[in-house]
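Render this sequence as a predicted structure.
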Amino acid sequence: MNKWKYRGDYVLVNLFKAGVQKRFKEDFGKLNPTLVPIPLSATRQQERGFNQAEAIAQLLDLPIDDALTRVTNEKQAKKSRQQRLQSNNPFQLKNEVQGPILVIDDLYTTGATLHWAAYLLKRGGATTIDSFTLIRS
């Protein structure tokens, strides 16, 4: 995971493909959602060369909507659990959404990221919001 996420080795996403597709089918196969990957800041995107959440979303044959944009550059990995839970909303909604939404992220730690994303997406028109993360720490 570290090599893929922090060293920019995009091709490693293929190691997760079969597991992601299997788990998606089991948990969300009948949902037919639009996928909304958690965005990186412009700085992180440039450092890493790709967005891990978007790479995961691309493993699924479903529409992807980049409905969120990140408005802060704060590194979550450097924050304590308490700091993460008390953080302000790091996102803005770029466009309205419709129907069921599946938020995609690479790592679930406290749930704060998904909470803020879901908050905005619900206000932006989503009928239901679920989440799919590759790893829970």
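Summary. The helical segments are 2-6, 17-28, 42-48, 52-57, 81-85, 112-123. The longest strand covers residues 100-108.
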